[in-house]
Write a structure and sequence with these properties.
about 300 residues, alpha/beta, D-Maltodextrin-Binding Protein, domain 2, 3 domains, transcription
Length: about 300
């Protein structure tokens, strides 16, 4: 006996409302019928998907897998319906792009400019965030692609496809009040006592910066402000005497009060995009991929 769609729908309702009673009320069925549906689901799978407690019902690890997969399927069905309606109206899409801060001011706008130059009406949404927020959205189908750093040095998840577009060298940004403003090259050891502004946890970029300090044998700075906004980082460097780690992709232009200095032995990170391995990209998404791969 196969798992039935109604059983998965019932599990989703319990996961959403946290109890059999509330889920049964919302779905308009009796609580015994709902309990029987879940019992049949567990019998079919041979595992428990829910744990009942005095406070309600919680998903087991097996239940979490089912809910995650089911939410992805529902998202795909919703997307299919939306895409059909958009196409009937002469609109291409939807295309939902996840983007990390480092590509929002350079790589992504340039790619979209080329895409829009050769397209009719389109339905495109940009979701900005950090990798640790965007990857679950990619898995669930809430977004179609992530553009930003790819985790080449940390290994990619088995369900995520990564494509490298370019190498992005690291450097140090300093302001006019910095003792290093007239330097062409600097090492992390020389900056050990500097005032820093660095990325917050939760991104591949932060993990790359941590790796830079570890490789150099330098402790993570104690005199440090954490921020992810690039305008905030640049302003603190310009006006507060802070230094920060930047990459070529982040810097749109060289300004007189903001200088990029070569960081000795820093190496580079890789910029690219991430897709779900089991997805079939839409024509609009494939055009964006082609543009990025040929333009970079």
């Amino acid at each position: 006996m196969a798992v039935e769609a109604s059983q998965i729908a019932n599990l989703l309702a319990i996961a959403k409302y946290g109890s059999f009673t509330r889920a049964a009320e919302e779905k308009g069925i009796s609580q015994p019928a709902l309990s029987n549906s879940i019992a049949l689901l567990e019998q079919r799978l041979g595992v428990r998907v829910l744990e009942r407690t005095r406070r309600g019902s919680t998903l087991t690890p097996y239940g979490e897998i089912l809910v995650r997969r089911a939410e992805g399927v529902l998202s795909l069905l919703t997307d299919a319906e939306t895409e059909v309606k958009r196409r009937a109206d002469g609109i291409d899409g939807p295309l939902r792009i996840g983007a990390t801060p480092s590509v929002l001011s350079t790589l992504l706008p340039k790619a979209l400019r080329l895409l829009l130059a050769d397209a009719g009406p389109v339905d495109i949404e940009i979701v900005d965030g950090l990798d640790d927020t965007l990857v679950p959205m990619l898995r669930s189908g809430a977004i179609d692609i992530i553009i930003g750093p790819v985790a080449e040095m940390f290994g990619s998840p088995p369900d995520i496809l990564e494509h490298v577009l370019m190498r992005d060298p690291f450097a140090i940004a300093v302001g006019p009040g910095s003792a290093f403003f007239d330097r062409d090259k600097v090492s992390l050891a020389e900056l050990a006592d500097a005032k820093w502004v660095l990325p917050r946890p939760g991104s591949t970029y932060r993990r790359h910066v941590e790796a830079l300090f570890m490789t150099a044998g330098i402790a993570w700075p104690q005199n440090c402000i954490l921020a992810n906004s690039l305008p905030v980082l640049e302003s603190l460097v310009r006006f507060s005497g802070c230094v920060t780690v930047v990459s070529q992709v982040q810097i749109t232009e060289q300004k007189s009060d903001f200088k990029v200095v070569t960081l000795e032995g820093a190496g580079f990170r890789c910029i690219g995009y991430k897709l779900r391995k089991n997805m079939k990209p839409s024509p609009l998404l494939n055009r964006l991929r082609t543009i990025m791969e040929s333009a970079v």
